[in-house]
Every structure is written in C-alpha cells, then in structure tokens.
Structure prediction request, 128 residues.
Amino acid sequence: MSEAFFFDASSKTRKKELSVKKVRKIFVNEPLSFRFMMKNPLLADIFIYKIKLVCSVKEDDGKSRMATSSEISQIVDKHLTLRPLETKEVIITATPTITGALSIERIEWELFDVVSCHFHLLKSSVEA
Prediction:
C-alpha cells in the first residue's frame, strides 16, 4: 500500500500537511475523501473485501479515542479484485456525525474474505 492521503484539501499546502500528519478537522455531515493505492505483488489474482478506515478523534479535553462506525460512516466499494502485479486507486468517502480532529490510525480489509489485514498510518497509539 502506498500514497495514502486525504485529497479533498482546498490548497496545496493544506494537502501536503494532511498527507504528512494524517489529521484533519472534521465537521458534522461534511464528507471527506481519503485516497490510497493498493498493489498486488503476486502473480495471481487477489480479492479484497470490507475495506475501512480506523480513526481516532481528539476531544475538547485533548484526549484521543477511537471513533465508532456511527460517528464516521464510510462509503467504499465492497469488493476489489487486483490482477497480478496490478495497482489500483482506492477512494473512501466518509461522512462524520461529530466535530473534532480526526486521525486515520490504519486501513483494514479482509483478504479473500478470510484473512484480516491492516496497514498502520500513524506510529503513535491512541491514549486510553
């Protein structure tokens, strides 16, 4: 997986900041888009299911917590097929029902609808 970033920023500077920090201020019912590339390094087809973002939200008191699926609804293709050595762009559109600072922790998916996989975007963990 490569080139993971928000791509709905209003300026080049803001876009660069978002792609490096993976943090974005969110507002209720204002959709945001996150783009990343997935590559199949194998010489066989792979099938990917249930792609989703796992996010944390920084609250007013400064503490971070994991966002629930009811707080960040996501729209993404339910199924993705990657042919041998193929690279595809994946776009997830999410609509928050809360306001705050959103951090994308990782991207999760299921390989062949059997194996759970993830790709961490942030090095630090969320405070409990």
In short: The helical segments are 12-21. The longest strand covers residues 46-58. The mean pLDDT is 80.
